[in-house]
TrEMBL record, chain A:
This protein's record includes keyword Signal: yes
Residues of the ABC transporter substrate-binding protein PnrA-like domain: 35-311
Species whose genome carries this gene: Pseudomonas aestuarii
Keywords: Signal
Protein name: BMP family ABC transporter substrate-binding protein
Signal sequence annotation: 1-30
Database matches in Gene3D superfamilies: 3.40.50.2300
InterPro entries (alphabetical): ABC-Purine-Binding (IPR052910), Peripla_BP_I (IPR028082), PnrA-like (IPR003760), TAT_signal (IPR006311)
From TrEMBL, chain B:
Designated name of the protein: ABC transporter permease
Lineage, highest ranks first: Bacteria, Pseudomonadati, Pseudomonadota, Gammaproteobacteria, Pseudomonadales
Transmembrane feature ranges: 64-82, 94-110, 116-139, 148-167, 199-217, 246-264, 284-311, 318-339
Main location: membrane
InterPro entries tied to this protein: ABC_transp_permease
């Protein structure tokens, strides 16, 4: 029935006021729930980028109860079709929309201009507007901690990294992983293979096997499938998952990982829209804000490594440690951030170089 | 007992060839009703959401037309080749090259506004698509390489090429290294037909191409020769028609039309080039061309139907909470039923009732 109701509502374009509950205080607070729409790039699946966003949606739904009604549309391509889907949500009563992939940016911007009363939130972009904010997470913080574990645990000192595209977000993750590893193991080096795709289990697996044959015994990835962790499990080497905890694909292989936690952010943002206190902003949260977590370390990781990771994590939470605190030296020996300084967010989001410790070369444009 | 037998018709049935797509559409809709019931939805509500909801307001209609434009353009170009048995399966790649050609012009012009920017982009788009289609044409006519394989495999090359362009020389310097070109200036964007929608001049272009396609196929000597080449290759050879020329024309026209569609995509709803420019139009248009009976009038309606299947799938996700793949299921059903009904163009079903002999 509720489907039919939604349909009729949308079809008539009229927001029908539906009393959903009786205020216990008698104050007749029977307002419509806030309709919140989510636009996903891929199917939800059981691990990965979209899965984490959907977990966030469910967490938010749980926290806010009947104050919200959520809906998601999955597998929306990043081309011109995205604008129609986002607009459809905006025009059928969804007053808060989360668009969770970079390629939606310009379409979100256009819909935001056409629907000034709708709040739009775009993940991983850089534009904002009066009713249009963006958000992202400091994935690199988790990467650094994973790198520390990798540097401590590697026997071959070769760390493998399967990466999608050379954009700053990916580059800073590779650099953070390398800096983490080098901080405890000056001989560690990171080798990168680009698969030129966010999701291609076949290529990801092939790249993993290539890295293993080059001696890598610690692997991680900035791609969307579970292929790297699975291949590592099969070959008896170790891996660090990304996006989600993938321990069920590699109970022995996975030592830790970097996961995205959007639930608290979605709850807080949605609450601020409900309260009328929402302001356009660019949010970039990390471990401190609870937007990034590392996967609990595998029991095979020794206690001293765990203690070190716990300490660093605590320092990041307290804001006393930054993975890119100077000196940051690139792989050609040039100092990019002087000792005593910390990289600015601006420089971080434009990062176009590999730090020392990364053996592969970055394609320069 | 009843026995069923397929019998060859003495002559292909013209009626059936027109009826077949209509039967396929009807069966697809019927299949849709069953599908909705099987998924636990009210079938009538499902039908309404899927087929009627996208058109409930003018904006929806404009979106339907916008989505149909590239399908029309590509399908009519492909139909000209298909009629001559030239199997260009790589329109997706030619679409990408058209988008790249048009983007090259738009970026070279920069902010300089002028009435010549758009026409230059149209030409560059068509040339880009035609150039990409010229590769299978050359390999086919020179080395007899199968154009189906060559054109299809060039799609992947085209995808890598556009990826290289937007990660490399055409990357927006202010775009945080994301794979995208700069946004086009206003003079490089197709003017809107209706303010407040996304429907633009490309729709008029597509209608024009449909008319030209129709005249070419039905009222020109060259169009006649291509049809003969497709329907009776031996007759065409005896008549002295050059088979190589047919291959060249079939592929170049198909490529140019697909390139035009690519131009319309970047200069229309996208407003820039990204590596996500190709969204399957080149492949969907193959279904459109056949549902439309390789005839521009049929293609017009078939592209609207195909666009409706895309839009309906989005509506079904939003209002019925059905998975995204529902659009693909409908497209698959349509093609399946079409191929099934097409069997009866050349065959008819004989049903015989024979009495069983005693003792059997």
């Amino acid at each position: 029935m509720s489907n039919r109701r939604n349909f009729i509502k949308a079809a008539s374009g009229v927001a029908v006021a539906t009393a959903l509950g009786f205020g216990l205080l008698g104050a007749a607070q029977a307002a419509d729930p806030l309709k919140v729409g989510f636009v996903y790039i891929s199917p939800i699946g059981d691990a990965g980028w979209t899965y984490q966003h959907d977990q966030g949606r469910l967490q938010m739904e749980k926290a806010l109860g009947d104050k919200v009604a959520t809906k998601y549309i999955e597998n929306v391509p990043e081309g011109a079709d995205a604008e129609r889907v986002i607009r459809e949500l905006a025009s059928s009563g969804y007053n808060l929309i989360y668009a969770t992939s970079f390629g939606y940016m310009n379409y979100v911007e256009r819909v935001a201009k056409q629907f000034p009363n709708v709040t739009l939130m775009h993940a991983t972009g850089y534009k904002t507007g009066k009713n249009f904010g963006n958000y992202n997470a400091r994935f690199y913080e988790g990467r650094y901690l994973n790198g520390v574990v990798a540097g401590k645990m590697s026997k071959s000192n070769v760390l493998g990294y399967v990466a999608a595209f050379p954009i700053p977000e990916v580059v800073m993750g590779i650099n953070a992983f390398a800096r983490g590893a080098r901080s405890v193991n000056p001989d560690a080096e990171v080798r990168v293979i680009w698969v030129n795709s966010w999701y291609d289990p076949g290529k990801e697996r092939e790249a993993t096997l290539t890295l293993i044959s080059q001696g890598a015994d610690m692997l991680t990835h900035h791609t969307d499938s579970t292929a790297v962790v699975q291949a590592a499990e099969e070959k008896g080497v170790n891996a660090f998952s990304y996006h989600s905890d993938m321990s069920k694909y590699g109970a022995k292989a996975q030592l830790s990982g970097t996961t995205h936690q959007w639930g608290k952010f979605y709850t807080d943002t949605t609450q601020s829209v409900l309260d009328g206190t929402w302001k356009p902003a660019s949010t970039w949260g990390g471990i401190k804000e609870g937007m990034i977590e590392i996967v609990p370390l595998n029991s095979s990781v020794p206690a001293d490594v765990k203690a070190l990771v716990d300490k660093l994590e605590g320092d990041m939470r307290a804001g006393t440690f930054h993975p890119f605190a100077g000196p940051v030296v690139d792989q050609d020996g040039k100092t990019r951030v002087a000792a005593g300084e910390v990289i600015s967010d601006e420089d971080l989001s434009h990062m176009k170089y590999f730090v020392e410790g990364v053996a592969s070369k970055l394609r320069q444009n | 007992m009843l026995s069923f037998k397929l019998e060859t018709r003495p002559e292909a049935s013209r009626t059936m060839s027109y009826l077949s797509p209509l039967i396929a559409v009807a069966l697809t809709m019927l299949g849709g009703l069953l599908l909705f019931s099987a998924l636990g939805k009210d079938p009538l509500e499902g039908f309404q959401v899927f087929f009627l909801n996208p058109l409930r307001h003018w904006y929806g209609v404009s979106e339907l037309l916008l989505k149909a434009v590239p399908l029309m353009l590509i399908a009519v170009g492909l139909a000209i080749g298909f009629r001559a048995n030239v199997w260009n399966i790589g329109a997706e790649g030619q679409f990408i090259l058209g988008a790249c050609g048009a983007t090259g012009v738009a970026l070279a012009m920069g902010d300089s506004s002028g009435p010549l920017v758009l026409p230059a982009m149209v030409v560059a788009g068509a040339l880009g698509g035609a150039a990409w289609a010229a590769i299978p044409a050359f390999l086919r006519t020179r080395f007899n390489a199968n154009e189906i394989l060559v054109s299809l495999m060039l799609v992947y090359v085209a995808q890598l090429l556009v990826s290289w362009l937007v990660f490399g020389p055409w990357m927006d310097p202010d775009g945080f290294n994301f794979p995208q070109s700069k946004m086009f200036s206003d003079s490089a964007l197709l003017p809107l037909l209706v303010e407040g929608t996304r429907l633009n001049l490309a729709f008029v272009m597509a209608l024009g191409v449909l008319v030209i396609g129709y005249v070419f196929m039905h009222n020109s000597y060259l169009g006649f020769k291509m049809r003969v080449a497709g329907e009776a290759a031996d007759a065409a050879r005896y008549a002295g028609f050059s088979a190589k020329r047919m291959v060249w024309i079939g592929l170049l026209v198909g490529g140019a039309c697909a390139g035009l569609a690519g131009m319309a995509e970047v200069a229309g709803p996208m407003g820039q080039l990204t590596d996500k420019v190709a969204s399957g139009y080149g492949f969907a248009a193959i279904i459109v061309a056949f549902v439309g009976r390789l005839n521009p009038i049929g293609i017009f309606f078939a592209s609207l139907l195909m666009a409706l299947l895309f839009l309906g799938g989005e509506q079904a996700q939003l209002y019925l909470s059905l998975p995204a793949s529902i659009s693909k299921v409908f497209q698959g059903m349509l093609l399946f039923f079409l191929l099934g009904s097409d069997l009866f163009i050349n065959y008819r079903l004989r049903v015989r009732l024979t009495l069983a002999k005693a003792g059997d």
